[in-house]
Amino acid sequence: MKNKEILIKANKTVAAGDYDGFLMFCTEDTKWTFVGDAILEGKKAVLDWMTANYIEPPIFGVKKLIAENDFVTVTGDIKIATINGEAKNYAYCDIWRFHEGKMAELMAFVIESEE
Q1: Nearest CA-CA partner of 55 in 100, 20, 30, 88
Q2: Hey, which residues does 62 pair with through a beta bridge?
Q3: Measured between alpha carbons, how far is 90 from 108 in angstroms, rounded to an integer?
Q4: Is residue 26 helix, strand or coil?
Q5: What are phi and psi of 92, to 5 degrees?
Q6: Lower Cβ count inside 10 Å, N or C end of the chain?
């Protein structure tokens, strides 16, 4: 599978609420950087973050998906349920680095949006 296809498949597991399944697409030492917010290192940190922040599976709206060499860049919108049952909307740009067919690093730019 190409990196773009891997990311699409991995995101489908998140949308289904299968966070452990998603992590199968990541390297053991995966590193996620949420610019201006947090840095997560390793699968356990990512799983803990997903479990705490995704009360319900997020809803992704992908606008652009660009792949070149070991990188895939995605722009779009994401809707995330809050603990009080409301939904928050965000615009995002994710830059993924792949290593040997797995997601090794994420740099995420995420801002709250009106939509």
Answers
A1: 88
A2: 76
A3: 12
A4: strand
A5: -140, 155
A6: C
Q: Locate the domains of the chain by residue range.
A: 3-113
Please give the average per-residue pLDDT across 25-52, as a whole number. 96
* Residue 76 contacts residue 89 (beta carbons within 8 Å): no
Percent of the chain with pLDDT over 70: 98
Q: How many helices (H) and strands (E) does the chain have?
A: 3, 6
CA distance 72 to 83: 31
Report residue 12 as tokens.
């489908």
pTM, rounded to two decimals: 0.92
Q: How far apart are CA 6 and CA 102, in angstroms?
A: 8
What does residue 36 show for φ and ψ, rounded to 5 degrees?
A: 80, 5
Domain 3-113: state its class. Answer: alpha beta
